[in-house]
Write a structure and sequence with these properties.
With 175 residues, this protein is mainly α. It has 7 helices and no strands. The chain starts with a helix and ends in a 9-residue tail after the last helix.
Length: 175
């Protein structure tokens, strides 16, 4: 069987978005400062305990990125993207405007919406979802309105819970 242009396009989008997210997780573990430096940074922005959030973010970025790249349980991987990027946009970037050049939330939006779009289209024929789960009871949930709803609802719910429970920024010094 020859792959369609549609399937190749979805594969390209999945691989680029997925490996980009996975690279961020890898960097949290092994980049400059490692998990210790990442933990200090998380604590400094108000995500406490910092070590918990550094490890959680690194693992979720690696797993969700790899899952999206191979097209496995795509709506759940997309939900993780939404949650990660919503938390990042709210805790770090919201006060900086839109553009990434001013540390705004543009990049967060592109990653989250790209993943949601993939949840809505489905991962395509060149994916684990299609190869392994096409005949399973999960298939109807892996694309279309159902996949889109799972990605958005689960992702936003996860981000709201994480922010509500753990985000405790330091109050600005009063004069």
């Amino acid at each position: 069987m020859i792959a369609s242009g549609y399937d190749v396009a979805l594969l390209l989008l999945r691989v680029v978005l997925g490996l980009t997210m996975a690279a961020h997780g890898y960097n949290k573990f092994f980049g400059a400062g490692g998990i210790t430096g990442t933990a200090r940074w998380f604590a400094s922005i108000g995500m406490k305990p910092g070590v918990f959030h550094a490890r959680l973010a690194a693992v979720v970025e690696l797993v969700a990125g790899a899952s999206l790249a191979i097209g496995f349980l795509t709506p759940l991987a997309a939900a993780a993207f939404v949650s990660l990027m919503a938390v990042a946009a709210w805790t770090v970037h919201r006060g900086n405007g839109f553009f990434v050049t001013k540390d705004g939330w543009e990049y967060n939006l592109v990653l989250a919406v790209g993943a949601v779009a993939l949840a809505g289209t489905g991962a395509g024929g060149l994916s684990v979802d299609s190869s392994v789960l096409r005949e399973s009871f999960l298939w109807p949930l892996l694309g279309g309105w159902e996949g889109l709803a799972v990605a958005v609802a689960v992702g936003l719910m996860g981000s709201f819970v994480q922010i509500a429970v753990f985000f405790r920024p330091q109050a600005p010094d009063s004069m």
